[in-house]
Design brief:
Number of strands: 13
Number of helices: 2
Shape: globular
CATH architecture: Beta Barrel
Structural class: mainly beta
Helix content: under 10%
CATH superfamily: Autotransporter beta-domain
Number of domains: 1
Length: about 325
């Protein structure tokens, strides 16, 4: 997710691009998709019926990277918590030989930016904000099950449902809509499906930000993992998935509505780490976690992300 705000500022153009959407405004640091959210089972659609999952996503950084991947000599820090509440419905009928899936994700965020040498507004340079943020809808998604793979693809839209006022320091929404096309694959490398590769890609394009004229560039996100599932009981109903994981997120087109120098700068970041997932036989209840460390960032923050996820079927 991305939080956009505005404040009076005066600092180098590289950082201005990262945090500013105009001469006196904070801007999109990343795309609205939280990278590392879909590390396993990316192509697998849930069983028919309703299911719910909650994911707590955390990102933190105290390093800003410039256009060449060099660290900028600035004292800044950023932390962001996002609580995602995912409700999924899968009907029993088929469409084009596939299983349809419908999803809504209602999210809440709590973030803090600190840059005492950068800001002329806010208490000691601190800019906290919390509350309902953007809401994501997946009104159309289809999943196919094959012998050696599960595949899904669909369209999603993210609405700026949270608080957003141009110029306010307490914004928790970004003030623009995001459309995205997503696709995922779960590839099984063994007959018992215990060893798998998971790939999830979402390509997003944005509308113009309300009240600023800024048009954030398009971006592409890829989550991936190679994992092994170990049975924890004789009947295999309890199991533990362990895997190496990573993600990448890249801005693919220029921003609009800014000066030419800022418009030409695009962000990118990669990350690597691990993921764990414990599954049980009780209404499909599961709990999982992941930790990933970012590297090779350009024109954005570089830090670490962590998720804690749990869910069940009704």
């Amino acid at each position: 997710m991305t939080i956009c705000r505005r404040a009076l500022i005066a600092f180098p153009v590289q950082l201005a691009f990262l945090l500013c959407s105009a001469a006196n405004a904070f801007s999109q640091v990343r795309g609205v998709y939280s990278p590392g959210s879909t590390l396993t089972g990316a192509g697998t659609v849930a069983s028919p019926g309703f299911s719910y999952s909650n994911q707590l996503w955390y990102g933190a950084s105290s390093v800003l990277k410039g256009p060449q991947g060099d660290s900028l000599p600035l004292e800044v820090s950023l932390s962001l918590w996002i609580d995602n509440n995912n409700l999924v419905y899968v009907p029993k009928f088929k469409l084009l030989g596939a299983t349809p899936e419908f999803t809504v994700d209602i999210a809440f965020s709590n973030d803090r930016f600190f840059g005492p040498t950068l800001l002329s507004a806010g208490s000691n340079g601190r800019v906290p904000a919390a509350g309902l943020t953007n809401t994501n809808f997946v009104p159309f998604d289809l999943g196919w099950h094959f012998k050696w793979a599960d595949v899904q693809t669909g369209y999603s839209v993210t609405a700026p449902t949270g608080r957003y006022v141009p110029g306010a320091l307490s914004n928790v929404s970004n003030g623009y809509w995001t459309n995205a096309w997503q696709a995922g694959a779960t590839i099984y490398l063994t007959k018992n499906k215990a060893t798998q590769i998971s790939l999830f890609n979402t390509y997003a394009w944005n509308t113009t930000q309300q009240g600023t004229g800024i048009h954030p560039g398009q971006n592409d996100s890829l989550d991936y993992s190679l994992s092994q599932t170990f049975p924890l009981s004789k009947n295999g109903k309890w199991s533990l998935l362990v895997g190496a994981a990573g993600y990448g997120q890249w801005q693919t087109t220029r921003n609009g509505g800014q000066n030419q120098v800022r418009e030409a700068l695009k962000y990118s970041v990669d990350a690597a780490g691990f993921t764990l997932n414990l599954s049980s036989p009780f209404r499909g209840f599961f709990v999982g976690t992941s930790v990933l460390w970012e590297y090779a960032a350009r024109n954005t923050f570089q830090g670490r992300t962590m998720t804690v996820t749990g869910g069940f079927q009704f």
